[in-house]
Design goal:
With 80 residues, this protein is an alpha+beta fold. It has one domain. The protein is built from 2 helices and 4 strands; from the N terminus they run αββαββ. A 4-stranded antiparallel beta sheet has the order 1-2-3-4.
Length: 80
């Protein structure tokens, strides 16, 4: 689906050192799409401490309009 591809492409471009991006929720709301993506990225705490990093799982909310342009995105907290 093009919406999923657009969300994944945006996250790949905007998040440093991420991999395995997967859209886990997609919802159409009037004139927009709301997506939640699971992303594996470097652990920022370990990176800041100059320790060997490992990948941690985080979730991002991505909102797209009907032209598949991203209108909003944010990293979600642990509570979702």
């Amino acid at each position: 689906m093009d919406v999923k591809k657009a969300a994944v492409a945006f996250l790949k471009k905007g998040i440093e050192d991420c991999e395995n991006i997967r859209v886990v929720k997609l919802e159409k709301k009037e004139e927009q799409w709301d997506a939640v993506a699971e992303v594996y990225e470097d652990d920022t705490f370990l990176k800041a401490m100059n320790l060997p990093t490992k990948k941690t799982r985080v979730f991002y909310f991505v909102q797209l309009n009907n032209e598949l342009e991203v209108t909003a995105f944010e990293r979600m907290d642990d509570e979702g």
